[in-house]
Design brief:
The chain is an all-alpha fold. The protein is about 75% helix and about 0% strand. Helix 1 runs antiparallel to helix 2.
Length: about 170
């Protein structure tokens, strides 16, 4: 564990990760309540399917943000493991730049989806609630992913000591 004080960027990163965790809880709560109501009370939450579908989308995009920065997501590091320290860093930088490009394009496309959903006035089925705010929250998660991947890229290149990567080899040696 590091004892250095958290920088402003570290606090932003932690906030984004907490938001992703909160969305996991909201999705789980929505599913739990919908199942309990259906099973024991023979009723349902109006628009439960629409809410669940859109909340899952929000969860996915905020999850991308949370996992992209830490480097703790599932990876196959066969080449990386066999490489030396300089080559590992080069692979990490290249992979992160590719990820940044892909997620940035995805973010632009998702913004187009938010805009179209707003202009087409797409509503939920039961309660006729506009769906664009849900898409906007998902888009904000994608924007957060771009920001975190850009920070990760910056730190990989200029300040690798500030990263919080979790590689299996490092965990095993502890």
């Amino acid at each position: 564990m590091s004892t250095r004080p958290a920088s402003a960027m570290d606090r932003v990163i932690n906030t984004i990760e907490w938001l992703a965790a909160i969305f996991v809880g909201i999705v789980a709560l929505n599913i739990f309540v919908a199942v309990v109501l259906r099973k024991f009370f023979d009723t349902s939450i109006p628009d439960a399917y629409d809410f669940g579908r859109m909340l899952l989308g929000i969860l996915i995009f905020w999850g991308i943000a949370a996992t992209s920065y830490r480097g703790g997501h599932i990876t196959v590091d066969l080449v990386w493991t066999a490489a030396g320290a300089r080559m590992r860093r080069a692979i990490d930088i290249f992979a992160t730049l590719v990820l940044l490009l892909v997620v940035a394009v995805q973010t632009a496309m998702l913004f187009d989806k938010v805009r179209l959903t707003y202009t087409d006035n797409v509503l939920t089925y039961d309660m006729n609630i506009p769906t664009w705010p849900f898409y906007a929250v998902a888009w904000a998660g994608d924007v957060s992913a771009v920001i975190l991947i850009a920070v990760r890229t910056w730190r990989l290149i200029f300040h690798p000591e500030l990263l919080h990567d979790e590689h299996v080899e490092e965990k095993v040696s502890e």
